[in-house]
Structures are given as C-alpha cells and as structure tokens.
Design brief:
By secondary structure, the chain is of the alpha/beta class. The chain has eight helices and seven strands, in the order αααβαβαβαβαβαββ. The model has no long low-confidence stretch (mean pLDDT 96). The structure holds S-adenosyl-L-homocysteine, 3,4-dihydroxybenzoic acid and magnesium ion (MG).
Length: 225
C-alpha cells in the first residue's frame, strides 16, 4: 500500500468534474496509462499530477516554445512525459529525483512513452545537482520535497531567461498555507517560498487554487521578467 496520506475530497463534485473533463477533453493514452500502472505495481506513492493537471502543464509549457525544460521531483515520470511532449524538436528535459527506485521506474515509463531520447534523469538530492546545470531553461516544474521549495525556486530563477515560466505544485495544502497555527512542514515551506517570491522583483507570480481528484491544493505560477 502507498504511504501517501488519504486525499481529502470535501465535495463530490470535484472528482466528478475531473472525470467529466478528462473524459471529454483527453484522448486515450496507453503510454500514460502504462506509466501509472507500472508506478502502482512498484508501490510508488500515488502523488503524481492528475491527467488534467498534466495536460495543463503541457499547455503552459508549450506557450514558452521550450527547447529546455527542468523538472525537480520525477517520481515515476508521469509529469515528465507530459512535459517532454511539449518540447520543441531537438529540445531536452532534465529531471531531478532523489530515490533510485523512483528513477528506475521513471526511466522505463519515459522510454516506453517514446521520449527517452530527450529526457535525462539525474539521481540524487536536487539541491546538489542544481549548481552543475547549465541554463537557460524555458520552463521549470518544481514538485519535490516541499520544505526546500524556496531554494529550488531561487535556482530556477538563476537558470532562467526572461520569459521563463516556473510552476510550483502543492502550494495550498488544503488551505494549510493560510492557517497561522499549521505545523505541517510542507505548508510552512510553501509559505517561506511565497513570502520570498512576493518580494522578488525578478518575477511576476500568482497562486491558483485547485480542486479535483487530488483534493484541495494549488499551483504557484511565475514568469521571469
Ligand atoms: N512530478 C511527479 C511527482 C513528484 S512526487 C509527477 O507529478 O508525476 C515528489 C518526488 O520528489 C518524489 O519522487 C521524491 O522521491 C522526490 N524527492 C524528494 N526529495 C527530493 C530531493 N531532495 N531531491 C530530488 N527529489 C526529491
Ligand atoms: C503529495 C502530493 C503531491 O502532489 C506531491 O508532489 C507530494 C505529496 C501529498 O499528497 O502528500
Ligand atoms: Mg506534487
């Protein structure tokens, strides 16, 4: 069984609308389905972005005509596949993952999806890999250990060009981010990140709250000036 905490769905309309929109908008996709099946079989925690969120990331990435994408937090490569498909011809994606077992599952999933030639998985702590990367990256997705998000965002801006879009997952945490009594380290980490980003003249940034099959959460979306 997975170690992920149970998703809290406060309203049955949230997963219902996710199912409706996914059924209506998304095509059947054997490679993505196989990636989830293989991740489940390997007992990876089911904390990948949802299909609709993957499509959202893909659309947003496409607006930057990306030749280089950076992802922090690979898991089984589900979001990686959506993002790699957004690359311009000849483009490259680098994804950073701490857990060797996750990276191995991701490698197989990404290769099966036919984008393996474009994707490099770097195994180890993201904070140790970031100083060796050469930008500029056109799109960055931050979705790893939440307390380190402020530092990851700093690196993303450092590795960016004007117009780079940076997306951060899980910034709302069922509203914990605005609960002054929260002890949840992820929420505290996101607050630390957002308070720094709000003072950072190099970026324009917003938070978009989300509901759906993964409960109540949200993305931060930033553009580098
Ligand atoms: N982006 C994925 C989900 C990532 S889950 C998707 O949507 O499909 C978060 C991942 O970050 C996990 O695989 C976890 O092992 C990894 N992680 C945690 N701490 C890390 C660190 N310090 N450096 C790199 N990866 C880390
Ligand atoms: C959880 C969800 C995520 O999307 C993630 O990246 C990490 C953890 C969670 O629900 O615990
Ligand atoms: Mg996430």
């Amino acid at each position: 069984m997975s170690s992920a905490p149970a998703k809290q769905i406060d309203d049955p309309r949230w997963p219902r609308v996710d199912e409706y929109a996914a059924r209506t908008l998304l095509k059947g996709d054997p490679a993505l389905d196989a990636a989830i099946a293989a991740s489940d079989a390997a007992r990876l925690p089911p904390i990948n972005v949802t299909p609709l969120q993957g499509a959202f990331l893909h659309v947003l990435a496409r607006t930057t005509s990306p030749r280089a994408i950076l992802e922090i937090g690979t898991l089984g490569g589900y979001s990686t596949i959506w993002l790699a498909r957004a690359l311009e011809p000849g483009g490259r994606l680098v994804t950073l993952e701490y857990e060797r077992t996750h990276a191995d599952v991701a490698r197989a999933n990404i290769d099966r999806a036919g984008v393996g030639d474009r994707v490099e998985i770097k195994v180890g702590k993201a904070i140790d890999a970031l100083p060796s990367l050469a930008g500029p990256y056109d799109f960055v997705f931050i979705d790893a250990d939440k307390p380190t998000t402020k530092e990851y965002f700093e690196w993303a801006v450092k590795l960016a060009r004007p117009g780079t879009v940076i997306v951060v997952d899980n910034v709302v945490r069922e509203g914990a981010i605005a609960d002054e009594n929260t002890k949840e380290e992820g929420a505290l980490g996101m607050r630390r990140f957002l308070e720094a980003a709000g003072r950072d003249a190099r970026v324009t940034i917003s938070v978009l709250q989300t509901v759906g099959a993964k409960g109540y959460d949200g993305f931060a979306v930033a553009i580098v000036r």
